[in-house]
Design a protein that fits this description.
Keywords: Coiled coil, Membrane, Repeat, Transmembrane, Transmembrane helix. With 338 residues, this protein is mainly alpha-helical. It has helices at 2-13, 22-48, 54-63, 77-93, 97-106, 109-120, 135-222, 229-293, 300-337.
Length: 338
Amino acid sequence: TLYKCSLILKWYQHRNTSERRYTVHCYIQSLVLTSLFLYSCILSLSLFSPSLSPGSKAVVEFSNGLYDIGSPVSAGPLQVLQLAEELRVALELQAGDEGRGTLRSQLPCSTAQTLLDWLEKGTVNLQSPPNNETYQERLERLEGDKESLVLQVSVLTEQVEAQGEKIRDLEVSLEEHHHKLVSTEEMLQQELLSRTSLETQKLDLMDEVSYLKLKLVSMEEEHGHMDGDDKQHKAEQALQQELRLLKTKVDELESEKSQYERKLKATKAEISELQQLLASKDAEIESLQSQLLSRGNMSNDSLDREEVYRRKLKDKYLELQRMKIGMESLLAANDEKV
C-alpha cells in the first residue's frame, strides 16, 4: 500500500494544478492513513510472531529498504484514483485511533509532507452539511426533490398537451367559421350585385316612362287640331295600356327590391353573429395565451411546444384581424350603396 502511495506521489509531482480534483484528494488522504495503520500492525506482528505470511514479509522487506520509493514510476489518473480508494477502504477497516497514530508516526516525513501539501492546496470541502445532516440524508432528500420535480414536469407536460388539444380544437372551429364567413361574404356580394342590377333596371324603366310621357304630350299636340276623336281616343288608350304595363313592371321590380333588402338584412344579422363568435374565440385564445405565459419551471421540450403554440395563436389572431378589416370594408361599401 505504501508503494502505491509512492506511485501516487510521483504522479502528483508531474501533474498540473488544474488536474487536482476533489475525488483524488479524498482518496489519497484515506489511502495514506490506511497504509500507515496497516504498516504499524504488520510491524507489531513481526515482533511477536516467529513466522510471517508472504504478504507480511513483503511489507517488512519494504520497510527494510528492499523497494526504492524514489525510483521513477508512471501512474495514470485512473490508477491514482484506484490506489486512493484502496487506501480509504483499508483505513475504514481499522478500529481505533492508536493504530492509525502508530502508522502515521512511521510514515516518512517527506512522503507525509508531500501528501499534506497536495491535499491542503486542493479544493477539498471537508465541512459537514448544515443542520447536522448526513450525506446519506442529504442524498435521500435530493432524490426526493428530484422525484418531485420529475412529477411536476410530468404534470406540466400533460397540462401543456391538454392545452394544445384545446387549441387545435379551437383552430378547427375557427377554420369552419372562417369558411362560413367567406361563403356569407360571397352571398353578400351576390346580393349587392343583384340589387345594383335592379336599381339599373328601375332607372331605365323610369327613363322610358318619361320618354313615353313626352311622346304622349307631343302626340296630343300634333293631333290637337285634328278632327276625329276616335283616333285620339285609340291613341290615348294605347298609351294608357302601355303605361299600365310599365307600372306593373315597376311594381314587380319594387317587390323584388324589398325581397332583396330583407335578404340583405338577414345577411347583416348573420355577419353580426359571426363577428360575436369570432370575438368570443379571440377572447378564449387570449385566455389560453395568458395561461401559457403564466407557466413556469418547465422543461426545454415543454418550452419549445409552448413557443410553437404561441406562434400559431399569433398567426390566427392576425388572420382574425384581417377578416375583421375585410368585413368592415364590405359593410361600409354596402352602407354607401344603400
